[in-house]
Amino acid sequence: MTGEDGFRVYTDGASRGNPGRAACAYIIVQGDRVLCERSIYLGVTTNNVAEYRAVIAALTTAQEYTDGPVTLYSDSELVVRQLTGVYRVNKEHLKDLHAEVLRCTAHFSSVVFEAVRRTDPWIRRADELCNLELDRGQSG
């Protein structure tokens, strides 16, 4: 299915401690319809890894809905700036995650990465999903 309205994807990662217990979440939206929202417990990792894991999980799931254009929104300026080439990826542990995101983008006709504030309602919902996942204390 190709997204003529375009697909919007909202992601968030969270860790309690850095590193600490972490989770990620994403929401896939087409028009004003939520197609999917999920959270994943990640174990102990850093906040930046959780943010990258959210992007990877979201793009992987979005492939089930479209091969068309996708706009991905994150409140992680670091991740967005690394993915758009504004910042270089200097941390070794983030280089593989960065490459994995770029591999995921090949499925779509285009992917635009945009940084948004934490106050964005969709990002707040993704943050809520992360915190619910961490509160459940799931291990996978």
TrEMBL record:
It comes from the Archaea. GO terms for molecular function: nucleic acid binding; RNA-DNA hybrid ribonuclease activity. CDD domains: RNase_HI_like. Signal peptide: none annotated. Residues 3-135 form the RNase H type-1 domain. This is Ribonuclease H. The lineage of its organism: Archaea, Methanobacteriati, Methanobacteriota, Stenosarchaea group, Methanomicrobia. InterPro entries: RNaseH-like_sf (IPR012337), RNaseH_domain (IPR002156), RNaseH_sf (IPR036397).
